[in-house]
Design brief:
The chain has helices at about 15-25, 115-130, 175-180, 250-260, 305-325, 330-340, 355, 360, 365-370, 385-395, 400-405, 410-415, 420-425, and strands spanning about 5-10, 30-35, 50, 60-65, 65-70, 75-80, 85, 90, 100, 110-115, 130-135, 140-145, 150-155, 160-170, 190-200, 210-215, 225-230, 235-245, 270-280, 290, 295, 380. By secondary structure, the chain is α/β, with parallel strands linked by helices. The structure holds flavin-adenine dinucleotide. Flavin-adenine dinucleotide (FAD) binds near residues 12, 47, 172 and 297.
């Protein structure tokens, strides 16, 4: 087949670039498309923290000497940028009760990194390996012909299409091209969140190296208001706000700094930069491939695989394509690995609704009472959005009898909440 490359990749995020690099290392002819012009001024919100929890996404990631090392999947990724340790995590109630997570020896459970630098490092490696990288190019359609795939592209008002034996869709969470190839059929869309990250200087009372989640109506959001470190220094923090088309993050910001328990910390704050995005929360794909097309990373996930998960998907996907081209069931093997590795693919994960249901299920007074039960206690240091609610609720429920006696209404809410599924929590 003339003029047909081995592999076309839609999206040069961590998943797409890692797939391109690995496939090129295996000798495949690869073309990758990215709608952005460059990675130097990314405007898409991402907290960019590598999670060091043992076994998270069935992997053990180590960060040292300019490398991210994936011990189980057995590969390394170069990273030449700065790192900031995340040592403490706090869940705050409206009236100042805190749930504290940390390792006993204060070893970091996450490290913040510079995503622009990580992507540029990967891009340089792809360039060296001869990957055909086409920036400022939007994939806008495509079809699977049977023995090859065609992707429709738009670059500076020029429309063209490109043929490849296999396609990897690594377009991120909004999964549009994934839908073009039919992978979103019968895929539940729960909600679309609007997320804005404010990078702020001069915020008072921020404890360095800590990740803080504020819960309660007093903070004007159903989602947690998050304050965490930035890579720019201790006096610059990142504030992340999640809303919707109806409750815009900008409105939450104005209310938060104007009238909330956090008002005083923003008195001297200056906005340095703003990043944002809309995030579609689809149910994950249990079978992320169809014909010659494999969807990877956030495109196939329930919300997000995180950057480290995206790198793992890219690495595994390239191997899957190579296997397919050699007559093996590479996509099926990828699918088995995908199901095993990511917690959102498992049924117990539906119980994570407990974590999402704090607001509005519980009133601000309820949250003060529940968080006060854990004052002074330090729970295991973890970043994981799956493990955290479990640790909190296991700890709260160890005081079940006390709650039943002191606060029977809350006890009833807890009992009802445990019956919720993920879908009903949305
Ligand atoms: C608010 C927020 C906080 C987060 N915090 C963290 C964190 O602390 N740690 C962490 O590891 N992860 C975090 N994440 C998640 C992380 O950003 C993603 O899981 C990860 O980037 C997924 O990588 P990906 O390659 O699958 O997709 P993406 O990173 O989204 O990359 C997709 C790429 O495809 C391009 N693209 C899309 N459509 C097209 C098209 N049609 N044609 C051409 N190009 C296209 C996009 O421009 C983009 O460059 C966060 C996400 C959000 C929203």
């Amino acid at each position: 087949m003339n003029n047909i490359v081995d592999l076309v990749i839609v999206g040069a995020g961590p998943a797409g670039l890692m797939a391109a690099k690995t496939a090129a290392e295996m000798g495949l002819k690869v073309v990758i498309f990215e709608k952005n012009k460059s990675f130097n001024h990314l405007k898409r919100a991402c907290s960019a923290q590598i999670i060091l929890d043992d076994g998270y996404e069935n992997e053990f990631v180590q960060v040292s000497q300019g490398m991210l090392e994936f011990q189980k999947n057995n590969f390394k990724v170069k990273y030449s940028g700065p790192l900031v340790d995340v040592i403490n995590k706090f869940y705050h109630s409206p009236n100042g009760h805190k749930i504290h997570f940390a390792h006993p020896n204060r070893k970091p459970f996450a490290v913040k990194f510079d995503k622009n630098i990580l992507l540029n490092d990967l891009l340089k490696e792809c360039e060296k390996l001869g990957v055909d990288i086409r920036m400022s190019t939007l994939a806008c359609g495509g079809k699977d012909i049977g023995d090859h795939v065609e992707i429709d592209l738009k670059s500076k008002n020029k429309h063209y299409s490109l043929k490849a034996k296999k396609a990897i869709i690594a377009e991120g969470v909004n999964a549009n091209i994934t839908g073009v190839f039919g992978l979103n059929e019968n895929r539940k869309l729960f909600t679309t969140a609007h997320v804005v990250k404010y990078i702020l200087e001069g915020v008072n009372s921020y404890e360095p190296n800590s990740w803080n989640l504020y819960y309660g109506k007093a903070y004007h959001s159903n989602a947690a208001v998050i304050i965490g470190p930035s890579i720019y220094g201790d006096n610059i923090i990142e504030l992340t706000l999640s809303g919707s088309a109806n409750i815009r993050p900008k409105l939450i910001y104005q209310k938060l700094i104007g009238n909330s328990p956090l008002k005083h910390i923003f008195e001297n704050a200056q906005i340095i930069d703003i990043h944002g995005c809309a995030v579609k929360a689809y149910m994950s794909l249990k079978k992320p491939y169809i014909g010659n097309v494999l969807a990877i990373g956030d495109s196939a996930a329930f919300v997000e695989v995180e950057v480290q998960g995206a790198l793992m998907c890219g690495y595994r996907a390239a191997k899957a394509v190579s296997d397919e081209l050699n007559g093996k069931n590479g996509f099926e093997m990828y699918s088995d690995w995908w199901i095993d590795s990511f917690e959102f693919n498992r049924d117990e994960y539906l119980q994570v609704s407990q974590g999402y249901a704090l607001v509005p299920t519980y009133s601000d007074d309820d949250l003060d009472y529940l968080f006060s039960l854990l004052d002074g206690k330090i729970l295991e240091g973890t970043y994981s959005q799956y493990k955290t609610p479990k640790l909190i609720w296991d700890s709260i429920l160890s005081k079940k009898e006390k709650i039943k006696l002191e606060n029977p209404d809350i006890y009833v809410k807890i009992s009802n909440m445990n019956k919720l599924t993920l879908a009903s929590s949305f």
